[in-house]
Amino acid sequence: MARTGKNYRNVRDKVEQREYALSEAIGFLKEASWAKFDETLEVAMRLGVDPKHADQMVRGTVVLPHGTGKKVRILVFASGEKIKEAEDAGADHVGGDELAKKIQDGWLDFDAVVSTPDMMRVVGRLGRLLGPRGLMPNPKSGTVTFEVEKAVQDIKAGKVEFRVDKAGVLHAPLGKLSFEADQLQENVESLLKAVLRAKPNASKGRFVQGISLSSTMGPGLKVDEAAVQALEL
Length: 233
What we know:
By secondary structure, this protein is of the alpha/beta class. The protein has helices spanning 6-12, 22-32, 81-89, 97-104, 120-123, 127-130, 148-157, 181-197, 226-232; strands at residues 40-47, 59-63, 74-77, 93-95, 112-115, 159-163, 169-176, 208-215, 221-222.
């Protein structure tokens, strides 16, 4: 969503050219919100890695303690007894070849996809459609698994998948601005800890080289990296 217009400029002009303490940045964005909907708090982290090298890729998942505030529609590819397990766990759509055909025909009314390993023969045909949308199940993110119940429950609880992009920047949602400030801070800290744990051995020098927080419609605020240093202790 474009960040333009008079309201955006008014808020942007209040941003000081300095690093904000984590709690201060969250408070500013909550106070300055002018949108008519519940905005999402987002983080952007510039990392000291070169993602073109496989041994410097940073990716992982974290279940935010207070969730994302978003209702997630989950599709599960499963067969046999795993179908009922997925349904009982709260999956919105469960099936096999019939779901694959619907997707091939253009149906994409879901936000996350889980698959049991034996069903990846079906899901593999959908890579061209699911891959570009970040929906392709992957063992590393826990979405290719026989533990269907846990996978579905984690996603509904606020599981966030993060991955550094080609420019070495990682983006992730952290909850809604309507959350209490301390809830947002705990979500931010959980995400930061997960990223630090995912630091590749091949990364040399300073790993986290910059952090900024923003809301869906608001400007970005540089965050004092002391927040990260405290988590590393």
